[in-house]
Amino acid sequence: MNQKLNNINEMKCQFLDENATYDFLKFLKGRSKVFAPHRKGEASYIYDEVSDVKDVVLQYPRTIQPLKKYFLPPRETLLSFNIDENNFTESEINVEPRIFFGIHAYEMEGVMRLDYTFEQGQPESNYLTRREQSTFIGISYEPDEYHFSKSLGIDIDSVDGFSLYFKKTDNGYYVYEIDAAGQQLMKEFGKGKRVDIPVTKEEPEFTNKIKYHYNRLPQIFEHVYDSKVWEEVAERCVGCGTCNLLCPTCYCFDVRDEVEINATEGKRERFWDGCMLNPFAEVAGNENFREKLSSRTRHRLYRKFKYITNKSGELHCVGCGRCSKYCPADISITKIINNLIDDYADRQQKQVI
Amino acid sequence: MSGQKPKVAFFDFTGCEGCQLNKLNFENELLDLLELVDIVEFREAMDGKADYYDIAFIEGGISTPQCIERIHDIRRRCGVMVALGQCAVSGGINAMKNLHPSEWVQEAVYGEDKYLFPSIPAQPVSAIVNVDYEVRGCPMSAPEYLHVFKSLILGRKPEIKDYAVCVECKLKENECVLDKGMFCLGPITRAGCEAICPSNGQYCTGCRGPVSNINRDGAVDMLKKHGYSTEEALKRMKMFNTNEIDKEIKWGR
Q1: ω before B6 within 30° of 0 (cis)?
Q2: Is the minimum CB–CB distance between B211 and chain A shorter than 8 Å?
């Protein structure tokens, strides 16, 4: 599970120094719209469309919203309707070629998890249409205290899904051609210097880790449904839903009709929702079938490590660390999982005695 | 409400009337709104009275014996009652006086004439009569008010948001105010304002009241982690929501 086959250590590559990397961005911009990480506010980053390549940040820990915002926008109008005329028009989705530059491995995995989700059953056409004509160019990063994708089988240099992969080295990048599209891009750019045997440093260590191998996690989740850990988390959780909204694999949304002031025309809008929020499990008669924060956190994690995993065979957490980094109450997903593992191990020992 | 235009009235109780004025600021929508309804009573904008109202909008909280009489009278004569703004919804800023002895408050305001002005603890309208819908905020949130208004005209149930301001910040991809080292009540305050303050360099003061499932101890712990003492945290949480936060303290979790 989760283990990827591509290994860039055995691949040839080209070298681009930092200036040439920005030149490459200019070259990309000449071909299509390019989206890349930019600074936001004092110490945050977001993906944004590149207008001046100098504003692109090559090395960054993570963006606020995940890449899903381009395929499943935070808010979108599904259709507009007219009550008097009793008709509606669906919104048109125009696709154009888009290049996403500077993407981390876990982020790419997140997009691939969403692809799985939206291809299941009735395919989600808005998402899948937006997903067409996208090219992804990966980049390496230094893991901070929140990243833990290695614990989930996603290395910094996992290159699945990318066309090109930029690996940071002294004063520049080794560029690996992952697929034919990437090869074509580098050929047309033409400024890469061939490197036959790249001297790469050892992958930096992740300080944030899950105690057990990721293969064991679904099995752990078979046994921790009634763990005391959920209540412990709920004592500190304020239920703001940040963890849901910024998760690269969370896909729940809500739909709402809003009429114009003339009370005749209106729009059907869809927007991100989350299972930590009050209205999520609310049904007619003001009943809420997941009322407590403890059961909501449990549900959130089970969605990542068991429910969908049972169907897809892959963990639906990619270790980006957003839920922990942006949690106002400082709740860490790795601590929850490690506490669950401890609790499970404790109970097993007691059974033996 | 079919056929005739619904009769709508606005009433003010204890508050600054800012929410009522706020409505007159909808310059783009005001004329369209007037197309849909008959406004029969609105002290800030017109003279005139009526016997029955399809929709009564109440601004301001309850803080005198006369308020109680008046709100009962309006309730008897209206179809739908909507509380507008935080004073009407929870007592609002007025409820800060509830933390002090009534005598002391009256003396501080009216001096030796205090016996001429009977006063009771500031309460939400819903403490006295049945309120159908609420529009929160100080001042009330304009988009939410328009949503409630339009929904009632169409005979739909308005959808009132019961999740945190954080959600609206995250949808807008704002940088987290707490991460910037500022104070913020966004994680426990009800959304519906489109996160207007955090989107404009301010922090959330909690003017829309806490989410219905507030984890008060968790919220205090959260603010402590960001460098605020328990007292400071509670003081700020109570500013707009003394009644709601105090209830949590007295009744426990």
Answers
A1: no
A2: yes
| Cα distances (angstroms) measured from residue A160 to each of A18, A105, A211, B10, B161 | 24, 8, 25, 61, 40
pTM over 0.90: yes
pLDDT, tens digit, 9 for 90 and up, residues A218-273? 999 999 999 999 999 999 999 999 999 999 999 999 999 998 888 889 999 999 99
The distance of A100 to chain B (nearest Cα, Å) reads 18
Domains of chain B, residue spans? 7-153, 165-251
**What is the CB neighbour count within 10 angstroms for residue A50?**
22
Q: Which of residues 226-285 of A touch B (CB under 8 A)?
A: 234-242, 245-246, 256, 258-259, 261-263, 271-272, 274, 277-279
Query: Is the separation of the CB atoms in B14 and B61 below 8 Å?
Result: yes
Sites in chain A below the pLDDT cut of 70: 1-6, 200, 353
Domain B7-153 top-level CATH class:
alpha beta
Candidates A240, A253, A259, partner chain B, best to mutate (most B CBs within 10 A): A240
Across B229-238, average pLDDT:
93
Residue extents of the structural domains in chain A: 8-195, 214-352
The torsion of the CA quartet A180, A183, A189, A190, rounded to 10 degrees, works out to -140
Q: Which residues of B touch A60 (CB under 8 A)?
A: none
Whether residue B154 lies within 8 A of chain A, CB to CB, comes out as: yes
